[in-house]
Amino acid sequence: MSKLVIVGTLAFDAIETPFGKTDKILGGAATYIGLAASHFNIDSAAVSVVGGDFPQDYLDLLSNKKIDISGVEIVKEGKTFFWSGKYHNDMNSRDTLATELNTLADFNPVVPEDYKNAEIVMLGNLHPIVQSSVLDQMTTKPKLVILDTMNFWMDCALDDLLNVIKRIDVITINDEEARQLTGEYSLVVAARKIHEMGPKYVVIKKGEHGALLFHNDHVFYAPALPLEEVFDPTGAGDTFAGGFAGYIAKTGDTSFENMKNAVIYGSTLASFCVEKFGTERMQNLSNSEVHKRLLQFKQLTQFDIELT
């Protein structure tokens, strides 16, 4: 089993969808990634920053999921990162209503000593310079570095983003971001261009239409599980990344064949995340529920084609 370092935000979210709205609730990339990865019973640590307004109950939740929080900086006089958004009726597009960086504006991540030799590093969506600084702290070269990013950094920090992309093994982005990063509409061509930037593996998330995994000339596609109800898509991409990274850390196998399984596990966990607001569904998700849904995935995707 490999150690996993998770770098990202611990945050407050306020969310509005066609199904309702919330006040400030627990959110953040590191939160979703950590909750998803915790299903694999691995040795993981979160590296993040919060303000004095961040409830101890939220930190206890992560600790109870066996996530090491010694890398979480608490700025007692500061306020925690806050994001507010409103989803449109199609649940695929949203408007950002507020973004308050607060303590995140001056965040200098510190990787705990016990995790500077971690085999797997999951760089959640943050400024590319912050992501790079984490890699600079690792005492041994990680077996696999996974990076998630977004169009915001492509708009305002492209050179820094391209520099960190050179140093990673796997990038996870959505289809819109892949097209923006490369200027290519075809996702196959876009993936090839991203390969040339550095990553050996490219994961392109397509929301309700599943995910694509590219490695050289090999392509794997995993559909999204058809769901009766989607209440809140917030955190689904981070949950996917957490499932992906957690599975790789659990198995220690970074081959393309094993990454196919990681994509399925990531997609399965993300399918739970969207069923309730925020992290609510992920907090109490049982392993038996995950196993049952994995069997549904298997039935959805596997059959013998009879060639005539």
Keywords:
308 residues; alpha/beta; 5-stranded mixed beta sheet; 24% strand; globular
Provide structural commentary:
Helices cover 37% and strands 24% of the residues. The chain is built from eleven helices and 14 strands. The strands form two sheets. It has a nine-stranded mixed beta sheet with strand order 6-5-1-9-10-11-12-13-14, with helices on both faces. Strands 2, 3, 4, 7 and 8 form a five-stranded mixed beta sheet that branches. Helix 1 packs across helix 8 and helix 3 runs parallel beside helix 5. The radius of gyration is 18 Å and the shape is globular. The mean pLDDT is 95.
Question: TL;DR of this structure?
Answer:
The protein has 308 residues and is α/β, with parallel strands linked by helices. 37% of the residues lie in helices and 24% in strands.
Q: Any idea what the radius of gyration is?
A: 18 Å
| Ends distance | 44 Å
Helix content: 25-40%
Across the major sheet, the strand order is: 6-5-1-9-10-11-12-13-14
**DSSP summary: helix tally:** 11
Give the H and E element order. Answer: EEEEHEHEEEEHEHHEHHEEEHHHH
Mean pLDDT: 95
Largest sheet: 9 strands, mixed
Please report the total strand number as a whole number: 14
Approximate strand percentage: 15-25%
User: How would you describe the shape?
Assistant: globular
Low-confidence stretches: none
Structural class: alpha/beta
